[in-house]
Structures are given as structure tokens and as C-alpha cells.
Amino acid sequence: MAHSNAANASQIKNLISVFELKDGASRQRARQGLVQVGRDVIPFLIDYILDHNDRVRWEVAKTLEELKDPTAASALVMLLGDDVPGIRWLAGEGLINLKDNALIPLLKGLQVNFHSRFFLEGAHHVLRELEREGLLNNKMLEALSALEGSMPTFSVPFAAAEALQSIVKSRTSGQHRVAERLGD
């Protein structure tokens, strides 16, 4: 079994190495191969999030976006502040695809990356789309308003912390209600 895992790791690394090539068709085939492997590729892709090659980071973002796996949310949040607009866009679209699974990592990202204009713009896009889908509670709407305010670097970290706390509180009370029902 260990040999199979080593072979799989080697295969994943070989597919990711194709991302450096200029040939778009080869990169697309490699990306499709990685998506077919599934969530096991995510830890390998994370190693390339800060790669110096824009093309590699774009392919990593595209692969994560196509995987549509909640375990990729934190990696997509990291890419949301990239210098390259296309990478930021893919990261945002990937987070939007994850729906409410994106909220906790995104809010945590806002608490850390509130100084990055690129990150704030990307987070705004994601939250606005999730709002349109009716996935934001009042505290999350306040975080969205803070992003739209005149001084987001001051208001966003606090609003994101409150929104994060509201999610945790909501989930905790929901688990408590389930436990009460099971006890009946």
C-alpha cells in the first residue's frame, strides 16, 4: 500500500510539473488528471501557491477551483490576494463554488489580510455573490458593509471577527439542539 501511495505522490508531482510548460493543452490535460485524482492533490497544490511562476499559480488556482472541494477553501483564500488578477478571480470563483464552506476561511483571511487591497476586493466579490445566494447572516452582511466602507483597513478585521463568531455560535447552538433531540 505504501508503494501505491508513493507512486500516486510521484504521479501528482509529475502532473503539477507540467504547469510550468508553455503548452496550454498539456497543462489542461495535467489539470484534468489532477482533478480526477480528487482531494488528495490539494496538499501538493498548496506547495505551489507561492510559486514564482504566474502560470503555475494560475494552474494551481484553476485546479483548486475545478475540484470544488471544501478542503481547498484555505488554499483558495491564500490565492485571493495574489498579484495576478486572473489568479485572484479563479480563487474567488472557487470560493463562491464552495458556498458556505468558504465563509470561515474567508473571514479568517479578512482578519489577517485586511491591509491588502487585492484581498479585500476579492473577498468583497465572494461575499457579494454569497449574499445574492442568501448565505450571509446579519454579521456577515456587516462585514460586507465594512468592505464597502470608507476605511476598510480599520473596520474589516473587527467585522470579520464578529461574523466568524456568529458562525461558530450558530453552529454550536445547532449542535446543542441536535444533542437535545437525541437525548429525548
Structure description:
The protein is mainly alpha-helical. It has one domain: Leucine-rich Repeat Variant (Alpha Horseshoe). Helix content is 75%, strand content 0%. The protein has 10 helices and no strands. Helix 5 (73-79) runs antiparallel to helix 6 (85-97). It is globular, with a radius of gyration of 18 Å. The chain starts with a helix and ends with a helix.
Helix content: over 70%
- Helix count, DSSP H or I runs of 4 or more residues: 10
Mind telling me which CATH architecture this is? Alpha Horseshoe
Q: H/E order of the elements?
A: HHHHHHHHHH
Task: Describe the structure concisely for a colleague.
The protein has 184 residues and is mainly α. The protein has a single domain (2-183), classed as Leucine-rich Repeat Variant (Alpha Horseshoe), CATH 1.25.10.
Fold topology:
Elements: H1 2-17, H2 24-37, H3 42-46, H4 54-67, H5 73-79, H6 85-97, H7 103-112, H8 117-132, H9 138-148, H10 152-183
Helix pairs in contact: 2-4, 4-6, 5-6, 6-8, 7-8, 7-10, 8-9, 9-10
Based on the model shown, name its key terms.
184 residues, globular, mainly alpha, Leucine-rich Repeat Variant, single chain
